[in-house]
Design a protein that fits this description.
globular, three-stranded parallel sheet, about 40% helix, 3 strands, about 130 residues, alpha/beta
Length: about 130
């Protein structure tokens, strides 16, 4: 199974949001994971979040994932294989004050990307 979890950077994890059991992979821009966004695109989006900015972010991020996949699909294959064997969660700090909509997080786009590339994968999306 492949899903996502929230990373709490400067505060204690609240009791109502325990860490999920399974493999937790940080996937923020500084983590250099195959699903990490670039720092400049995150900064640009968070400087002025809007629906248009999100659509631009989404398009650019998916282009980045496609390019990475074409150049070297092995990290994606490894993520898929690990997710078939155990529960794996991609981590990000979203939702935040600047980006309160968890569906406007790169991890959700990464989950959609992985489901498209690996249709047999069990993917769990956040609650709406």
């Amino acid at each position: 199974m492949l899903g996502r979890f929230k990373i709490y950077m400067r505060q204690k994890r609240p009791a109502h949001d325990p860490l999920p059991d399974g493999v937790r992979l940080r996937a923020q821009y500084r983590d250099k994971h195959c699903t990490s966004p670039s720092e400049d695109m995150v900064t640009k989006y968070l400087d002025s979040p809007s629906e248009k900015a999100w659509l631009d972010y989404e398009q650019k991020y998916l282009e980045i994932l496609e390019a990475r996949f074409r150049e070297n699909h092995q990290p994606f294959e490894e993520l898929a294989e690990l997710s078939r064997k155990q529960d794996v969660y991609l981590g990000c700090t979203c939702p935040t004050k600047k980006n309160p909509n968890v569906w406007h997080c790169h991890t959700v786009l990464a989950l959609k990307f992985m489901k498209e590339k690996y249709p047999d994968l069990v993917v769990v999306f956040p609650a709406s």
